[in-house]
Amino acid sequence: MLIQMLDETMATIRTVAQDNRFTLHSQETGTVLQVGGGIARVRGLASVTSEELVQFPDGVLGVAINLEPEEVGIMLLGDSDKLSAGIRVTATGRETDTPVGDGLLGRVIDATGRVLDGGKPLEFHERRPIERPAPEIIERAPVTTPLETGIKSIDALIPIGRGQRELILGDRQTGKTSIAIDTIINQRDKDVVCIYCAVGQRATSVAKVVGTLREHKAMEHTVVVVASDDDPPGLRYITPYAATTMAEYFMEQGQDALIVYDDLTRHARAYRELSLLLRRPPGREAYPGDIFYIHSRLLERSTHLRSEFGGGSLTALPVIETQAQDISAYIPTNLISITDGQIYLSPTLFQKGLLPAIHVGKSVSRVGGKTQHPSLRSVASDLRLAYSQFEELETFARFSTRLDDDTRATIERGRRVREVLKQHEHQPLRACEQAVILFAVNAGLLDDLPAEKVTEAEQKIQQHLVSALPEICAQMDAGKKLDDEQWQRTTECIQDALAEFAPSETDDT
Ligand code: ATP
Ligand code: MG
C-alpha cells in the first residue's frame, strides 16, 4: 500500500517535471547590517542586480538600489518596525513590478498592488516592471486630438492635446489639485482612462480626492495609486513609475490615458532623502546629481503612439509646488524644461477670488494649440490679446482718472472677459458651452451688461444654446467648423438669452 502511494507521488513529480512546471532554483540570502529611515544595508547578496526585489521576513519588500562591493543598499517598500540588524534577507530574482489590467479601474491601491480601499482582492491581467523604456521616436505620432479639461481658461487659452505633458505649478493651496481633478471628472463620457498618482500627500487629502471623484461618478474610469507621507521614502519614490506602468497598459491597448502626478516636488524630496541616507554626494539644493534624470525618464514615457503601434496615447499632468512664487528654483525649472508647457497658478489671483487662479501670461502650451477645436480657436486668439492688453491698462489706469473712450472700452471688455474666465471647481463645461460664452464676450454682446451680472447671463446663454440649437452644439462638441450662417444663428440665440437682462423702461427714466 505504502509502496503504491510512493510510486504514485513519484509519477506525479515526474509529470510535473516533464511539463516544465517544476524548476529548482537557488535563492541567495544576505544579512541585514543596519536598518533606519526606510533604508537597509545588507551584506551577502553578491549577485543581486540593481532594481531587484528582495524580501525580508514578515513579507516586507525592498528594492536593491545601491550596489557596492561590500554591501547592498536596499530601499524598503513596507514597515521597517519589525526589521533589525542580523535578520536574513532573500533575493527574489524578480525586477520590481506592479499589477496592470482593467481590473484596476475604480480601485485605490499602492505601487505594489496592495488594496487600500478595503474592497475585494485586486483582479489584474499581469505584473509588469515599473521601469520600462520610453517609446522610440519612430513609434511616436504628433499630438492631434484635444484633451478637454472642461475649464474655460485652459481649453481656450492653454489647450492640451492627448499625448502632451503639461506641468501644473504654483504655491501651496492655489488650486493645483482642483485643476487635475476637474480634468479627470471631465473625462467621464470621453473614454479616457485616468490614473491619479498621489505622492507624499496626507492620507486625509487623498481621501478627499477619492471622495470627490466618487461623488462625481469619475471613479469608474480612474485608478488611484497612493504613497502617502507616512509611507517609507522608497515607496514614495517608486509610485510614479508604477502608476505609469499601469497607464501604459491602457495606452498599449490603443486607448487614451491620462496620468496626474500629485506632486513631483514630494517625489523629488523622497529621492533626496533616499540618496542622502545612502550617502550619495549631494548637489544643488542637496539633491543628488541624477535628479533631472528621475523626472525626464518618467515623463518621456508619455506620448501619442502611431497607429501601427496601436494609436493609444498617454497624457501627463505633473504637479509641482513652488515656494514663494519662485518658478526658477531647481525642481520647477527642471520640470519646465522637460514638459511641453505649464499652467501657472498665482496666489495673488487666488486671494482676489479669481478662480481658477491661472496666470495667463506665465502659462503656455507648446503643442496643444494645433489640436484645439476650431470653434474655440476662432475666439481664443482675440481673447488672449484683449485680456493681456486689459491687464496692462488696468494697472496703468489706476493712476489716472481721465481715460479716453478706447481705453475705457478695452478695460470694460477686459473686466467682462475676466468674469467669463471665472469658473467654480468641479463644474467642467462642454466645448459648445465654452465656445458660446467666449464668442459672446469677444463679439461685444456682453458689453452693455453690468460686470456682476455676467456669471448669471453666462448660465442663461449656455442653457439657451443647448436647448435651442442642439445641432450646432453637437457640431461644436465634435470639433467641426461653423459657417457664417450658423454663427449668425448662435448670435441671435445669445441675444434672445440676454433679452431678460436688458435695462427696463423704468431704469431709463
Ligand atoms: P496643496 O498645495 O495643499 O496641494 P492645491 O494647490 O492642490 O493645494 P487645492 O487643494 O486644489 O490646492 O485647492 C485649494 C482650495 O481652493 C480648496 O479648498 C479648493 O476647494 C479651493 N478651490 C480651488 N479651485 C477652486 C475653484 N475654481 N473654485 C472654488 N474653489 C476652488
Ligand atoms: Mg494639492
Automatic annotation (TrEMBL):
<feature type="domain" description="ATP synthase alpha subunit C-terminal">
    <location>
        <begin position="372"/>
        <end position="496"/>
    </location>
</feature>
<dbReference type="InterPro" id="IPR023366">
    <property type="entry name" value="ATP_synth_asu-like_sf"/>
</dbReference>
<dbReference type="InterPro" id="IPR027417">
    <property type="entry name" value="P-loop_NTPase"/>
</dbReference>
<keyword id="KW-0375">Hydrogen ion transport</keyword>
<dbReference type="InterPro" id="IPR005294">
    <property type="entry name" value="ATP_synth_F1_asu"/>
</dbReference>
<dbReference type="InterPro" id="IPR036121">
    <property type="entry name" value="ATPase_F1/V1/A1_a/bsu_N_sf"/>
</dbReference>
<feature type="domain" description="ATPase F1/V1/A1 complex alpha/beta subunit nucleotide-binding">
    <location>
        <begin position="150"/>
        <end position="365"/>
    </location>
</feature>
<dbReference type="Pfam" id="PF02874">
    <property type="entry name" value="ATP-synt_ab_N"/>
</dbReference>
<dbReference type="InterPro" id="IPR017710">
    <property type="entry name" value="Alt_ATP_synth_F1_asu"/>
</dbReference>
<keyword id="KW-1003">Cell membrane</keyword>
<feature type="domain" description="ATPase F1/V1/A1 complex alpha/beta subunit N-terminal">
    <location>
        <begin position="26"/>
        <end position="93"/>
    </location>
</feature>
<keyword id="KW-0472">Membrane</keyword>
<feature type="binding site">
    <location>
        <begin position="170"/>
        <end position="177"/>
    </location>
    <ligand>
        <name>ATP</name>
    </ligand>
</feature>
<keyword id="KW-0547">Nucleotide-binding</keyword>
<dbReference type="InterPro" id="IPR033732">
    <property type="entry name" value="ATP_synth_F1_a_nt-bd_dom"/>
</dbReference>
<keyword id="KW-0813">Transport</keyword>
<comment type="similarity">
    <text>Belongs to the ATPase alpha/beta chains family. T3SS ATPase subfamily.</text>
</comment>
<keyword id="KW-0139">CF(1)</keyword>
<dbReference type="InterPro" id="IPR000194">
    <property type="entry name" value="ATPase_F1/V1/A1_a/bsu_nucl-bd"/>
</dbReference>
<dbReference type="Pfam" id="PF00306">
    <property type="entry name" value="ATP-synt_ab_C"/>
</dbReference>
<keyword id="KW-0066">ATP synthesis</keyword>
<keyword id="KW-1278">Translocase</keyword>
<dbReference type="GO" id="GO:0005886">
    <property type="term" value="C:plasma membrane"/>
</dbReference>
<dbReference type="InterPro" id="IPR038376">
    <property type="entry name" value="ATP_synth_asu_C_sf"/>
</dbReference>
<comment type="function">
    <text>Produces ATP from ADP in the presence of a proton gradient across the membrane. The alpha chain is a regulatory subunit.</text>
</comment>
<keyword id="KW-0406">Ion transport</keyword>
<protein>
    <recommendedName>
        <fullName>ATP synthase subunit alpha</fullName>
        <ecNumber>7.1.2.2</ecNumber>
    </recommendedName>
</protein>
<dbReference type="GO" id="GO:0045259">
    <property type="term" value="C:proton-transporting ATP synthase complex"/>
</dbReference>
<comment type="subunit">
    <text>F-type ATPases have 2 components, CF(1) - the catalytic core - and CF(0) - the membrane proton channel. CF(1) has five subunits: alpha(3), beta(3), gamma(1), delta(1), epsilon(1). CF(0) has four main subunits: a(1), b(1), b'(1) and c(9-12).</text>
</comment>
<dbReference type="InterPro" id="IPR004100">
    <property type="entry name" value="ATPase_F1/V1/A1_a/bsu_N"/>
</dbReference>
<dbReference type="Pfam" id="PF00006">
    <property type="entry name" value="ATP-synt_ab"/>
</dbReference>
<dbReference type="InterPro" id="IPR000793">
    <property type="entry name" value="ATP_synth_asu_C"/>
</dbReference>
<dbReference type="GO" id="GO:0005524">
    <property type="term" value="F:ATP binding"/>
</dbReference>
<dbReference type="InterPro" id="IPR020003">
    <property type="entry name" value="ATPase_a/bsu_AS"/>
</dbReference>
<feature type="site" description="Required for activity">
    <location>
        <position position="363"/>
    </location>
</feature>
<dbReference type="GO" id="GO:0046933">
    <property type="term" value="F:proton-transporting ATP synthase activity, rotational mechanism"/>
</dbReference>
<dbReference type="GO" id="GO:0043531">
    <property type="term" value="F:ADP binding"/>
</dbReference>
<keyword id="KW-0067">ATP-binding</keyword>
